[in-house]
Design brief:
Layout (H helix, E strand, L loop, with lengths): L5 E5 L8 H16 L3 E4 L5 H12 L4 E6 L3 H4 L7 E5 L2 H10 L3 E4 L4 H15 L7 E4 L6 H12 L6 H4 L2 E3 L2 H12 L1
Parallel strand pairs: 1-2, 1-5, 2-3, 3-4, 5-6, 6-7
Helix pairs in contact: 1-2
Amino acid sequence: MTLPRSVCVYCGSRSGAKPAYAAAAQETGEMLAARDWQLVYGAGDVGLMGEVARAAQTAGGRTFGVIPEHLFPREVGKRDLTTFVVTETMHERKKVMFMNADAVVVLPGGAGSLDELFEVLTWRQIGLHEKPIYLLNIEGYWAPLEALIDHIIGEGFADASLRELVVTVDSVAELESALVSAFA
C-alpha cells in the first residue's frame, strides 16, 4: 500500500489583480481533495492561501498548515486545519512544509512565494531532493519568471538543465495530470 501523497502549495497571501488567480486556487484545493492528496501550505486564511485551503476543506480534503508566530496576525492563522503547526521562524516554516510534501506547486504570489520557489529549486539543482516542482501559470503569470530563468541560463549562470527542474503548467487539469504521472 502506498502512503497518501502531500502537495506543498506556495501562493500569495493576497488575492492578486485577476479573479482567475482565486479561481485557480479554489480549483487546486478541490483537485487535491478529490485525489486524496493532502494540501501542505502556509496556514494563512487570507489571499490565495485562504482560497486553496477553504476549497480543500469544503471538498473534504486533508490540510496541513505551517505558520510562524510573527505572521499569525497578518496572515490570519487558520486554526481549523487537519494539522496546524506554529513555528518560531520563516526558515522553520519552509523546512516543515517542504519535508511534509511529495511535490511543490507554485501559484501566483509575491516575494514570499518566489523565496520559497527559489529555495526548493536551488535544493533540487544541487541534488538535495528530487521532488517535482510546478509553476501554475494562470493567465501567463509566470511568463516573466520563465524568461528570467532562460536569461540566467543564456548568460552562463546556470546549466540548461535548470529549466527542466521546474515544470510550467497552464491549468489545474494539466497540473493534475502532471502530478498523477509524477506519483505513478
